[in-house]
Specification:
Layout (H helix, E strand, L loop, with lengths): L1 E4 L2 E5 L8 H9 L4 E3 L6 H19 L2 E4 L3 E6 L4 E6 L3 E3 L5 E4 L13 H10 L2 H7 L1
Parallel strand pairs: 2-3, 3-4
Antiparallel strand pairs: 1-2, 4-7, 5-6, 7-8
Length: 134
């Protein structure tokens, strides 16, 4: 799904979707310049997979990834089992650089989304057009 906010086309995905690059490519093909990805990755998977997967999706799609993430302990299920979420909300640019990030704990990350940077990355390395040729 995509929508427009402030003149920018935003793609929407959630948490576990991060593991499916095809979805992110579909969002890019639908015109996304920014992909918004709220998540609650567990501490176990988050510490190893969260940042590399977000950076990979940003690089593959040449989109900004804005990824707010739940942090802390909560009770899950009918047995009220405690689970820990990883947090580390971040914003990643279309080149794959982390431009803002929250470390451990509660906080927020902000960044200026620059459509000119997106256009420049896409112009200099037109991967979407190259995918069509492969």
């Amino acid at each position: 799904m995509t929508y427009t906010a402030g003149g920018v086309t935003v793609g929407a995905a959630i948490c576990y979707d991060l593991r499916f690059p095809e979805l992110f490519l579909a969002l890019r093909r639908a015109g996304a310049e920014v992909i918004f990805l709220p998540a609650a990755f567990t501490l176990l998977t988050g510490k190893d997979h969260w940042e590399p997967l977000i950076r990979a999706r940003a690089i593959e799609t040449q989109c900004w990834l804005a990824a707010p993430a739940a942090w802390g302990r909560y009770l899950e299920g009918s047995r009220d089992e405690p689970r820990d979420t990883y947090g580390h909300s971040m914003v990643v640019d279309p080149w794959g650089h982390v431009v803002a990030q929250v470390s451990d704990g509660i906080g927020w990350a902000t960044a200026n989304i620059d459509p000119r940077a997106t256009a420049r990355v896409r112009r200099d390395m037109p991967v979407l057009e190259h995918r069509a040729l492969a």
